[in-house]
Amino acid sequence: MTTDLIAPLTFAEAMTADRGPTFDGIKIGRPATGALIDAGHSTLSDFPSDLDV
Fold this sequence. Notes:
The protein is about 30% helix and about 10% strand. It is of the alpha+beta class. A hairpin with a 2-residue loop joins β1 (about 20-25) and β2.
């Protein structure tokens, strides 16, 4: 069995990659989406449960 690994982006690639205007299905804009991904979030469940929304 083989596993295809996806190499992580380099810093330069991450800073120029277009991540789109949505984060986990919510349209928040490209800068905000990039900032959340850069901070290590990939879904809404990554946020604290007591976060006011």
